[in-house]
Amino acid sequence: MTFASKLATAQQTNNSWLCVGLDPVMERLPKAVLASDNPLLTFGRAIVEATIDLVSIYKPNLGFWLAEGPTGLRALQTLITEIPDHLPVILDAKFNDIGNTAAAYARAAFETLGVDAVTANPYLGVDALRPFLAEESHGVFLLARTSNPSAPNLQDKSVDGYPLYETVARLATQWNAENPGDCGLVVGATYPEELERLREIAPDLPFLIPGIGAQGGNLEAAVIHGPAANGLGPVINSSRGIIFASQGPDFADAARTAALTLRDRINQFRETAK
Amino acid sequence: MTFASKLATAQQTNNSWLCVGLDPVMERLPKAVLASDNPLLTFGRAIVEATIDLVSIYKPNLGFWLAEGPTGLRALQTLITEIPDHLPVILDAKFNDIGNTAAAYARAAFETLGVDAVTANPYLGVDALRPFLAEESHGVFLLARTSNPSAPNLQDKSVDGYPLYETVARLATQWNAENPGDCGLVVGATYPEELERLREIAPDLPFLIPGIGAQGGNLEAAVIHGPAANGLGPVINSSRGIIFASQGPDFADAARTAALTLRDRINQFRETAK
User: Fold this and answer.
1) What is the mean pLDDT of residues B52-68?
2) Helical (H) or strand (E) element with A93
3) Residues near A26 by Cβ (< 8 Å), separated by ≥ 6?
4) Inter-chain Cβ pairs, chain A and chain B, closer than 8 A
5) How far is Cα of residue A18 from the mean position of the Cα atoms in its chain?
6) Which residues pair with B95 in a beta bridge?
7) Angstroms from B128 CA to nearest CA on chain A
8) Residues A127-160: pLDDT tens digits?
9) Which residues contact residue B162 at a Cβ distance below 8 angstroms, ignoring those fewer than 6 apart?
10) Which are the contacts of B5, defined by CB distance < 8 A and separation ≥ 6?
11) Are B103 and A128 contacting, i.e. CB atoms less than 8 angstroms apart?
12) Is there a contact between B112 and A25 if contact means CB atoms under 8 Å apart?
């Protein structure tokens, strides 16, 4: 099965375009969780359990797990094995390295951690992406326009009259055609006009849209411009707005409520957009 | 002590601009090493022991350790604690993430793993770099021109009449001035003209120069254009050419011989360039 078809099936099963970002920060974990033997795993399990029928995909960001060293990485590895097979997992690690190093990262992601897709940074060009694009069961989402304030430093520089991130989108459509993979784009919801423009340039590519929630992104634009031409819905990610909806003992219930609310808001925009 | 001054002292102590890349690949480890309890750690220890008086810095690439999961990360963490304090360590992880995620990666590198410097990708702009630039005891080497065949896909795109990697170098000099950090550039030795040009644009920044050895980079160009205006020598990295000089039981001796040969070749070019 291709990554895109696995994602499409999960979107239909749970009637959801929602992705929950599994981004634990030790200082923000509820007290009861911190008292457990393995706080990161305890927290991750509780969030997954509370949201499992509301999402189409999960997205752990490697940084938060790596910050806790080997213990954190082990917790992530265990958590990923516990996520049901019908729900894909994207490892958000923004990989960017060359040759045999890229191959080592691909092994880390797809074999050692066992995820379905990764994020990657396009700055090194296509050979840095080939190990991730090599199998169609794996997806790669390339950074195009990120959601942070200093994204314009490089991404908006004019190349042949167009911003650099549009060049990335054009290259991504070529690289996707060249490789039998599922190449998508990361497009921050904080820049709705760029989202619309990128959808025009790359009608067929799956979109991963972060920046919803804590970062204040435009959800309606994400719903309108997010779907690919073949109907595959976008991966609309919220992390802190869901996982830290409460830091009290009710954190899992609060996460469920926040996820439900966001999924339903997305679905309302989908209805309106029909 | 700043990162740059620590590096300068190590360069003087060992009369060396050599960096050995600690990039183990399980399939390529000698049989005797594979038979040990912890092959990655055994191998890393043997390479460090064999080269410790010949280098000014070590550069483990995170990918190779991450490929072996929590065990690999633990081995890297242990190995770093065993490298003597007077020799700096760069974690080659090409970090690129935003806000609190960048802060988590900085914690992973500087606290959890305890390295002195990291590599980072400039595509997300300066806010993604601030957690790495925040303390002058830590260095950050930004990818400018990488050493792989598809580097031109984006890095050579023309921005205001100059290739994109020159824009990165100009931004890096601004970002270095803005932050009390030690911001350097990664410039592949496989492109000697670009190396010369980048040194003109960024005379004050430390250079990390990969691509020597297996990748066939131009060592003379690295020596001539590598030093910063203040005399700080470049970090000239070789990985496979040293650590896999032999895959037999003599691998450590062979690594020492390869490191000694490369250090001396660098020093001969330094003499000639005087």
Assistant:
1) 98
2) strand A90-95
3) A34, A39, A40, A67, A68
4) 183
5) 10
6) B120
7) 8
8) 999 999 998 899 999 999 998 999 999 999 999 9
9) none
10) none
11) no
12) no
Where helices occur in B129-250 by DSSP H, the ranges are 130-133, 152-155, 164-178, 192-201, 219-225, 240-243
Tens of pLDDT, residue by residue over A254-266, are: 999 999 999 999 9
Please state whether beta strands B18-22 and B235-238 pair in parallel, antiparallel, or not at all (unpaired). parallel
Tell whether ipTM is more than 0.85.
Answer: yes
DSSP B230-249: T-PPPEEEESHHHHTS--ST
Based on the residue annotation, tell me whether B94 is a catalytic residue of this protein: yes
pLDDT of residue A215: 66
Residue B71 scores a pLDDT above 80: yes
Q: Residues near A28 by Cβ (< 8 Å), separated by ≥ 6?
A: A244, A247
Catalytic residue from among B6, B59, B94, B274: B94
Q: What is the pLDDT of residue A147?
A: 84
8 A C-beta contact, residue B33 and residue B251: yes
User: Backbone phi, then psi, for B56, in 5-degree steps?
Assistant: -110, -10
To the nearest whole number, what is the mean pLDDT of chain B? 95
Assigned token pair, A60: 């752990």
Please name the residues in contact with A175: beta carbons below 8 A apart, sequence gap of 6 or more: A126, A129, A133, A183
To the nearest whole angstrom, how far is the Cα of A272 from the nearest Cα of chain B? 32
Question: Which residues in chain A are contacts of B152 at CB distance < 8 A?
Answer: 125
Residues 6+ apart with CB under 8 A from B145: B151, B155, B165, B186, B187, B188, B191, B194, B195, B198
pLDDT band at B213 (very low <50, low <70, confident <90, very high): confident
Q: Which residue in chain A is spatially nearest to B160 when comparing CA positions? A: A158
Can you give the C-alpha Rg of chain A in angstroms? Answer: 18
Q: Evaluate if pTM is beyond 0.95.
A: yes
pLDDT at B215 over 70: no
Q: What is the mean pLDDT of residues A93-115?
A: 97
Closest CA in chain A for residue B112: A69
**In the prediction, which pLDDT does A181 show?**
60
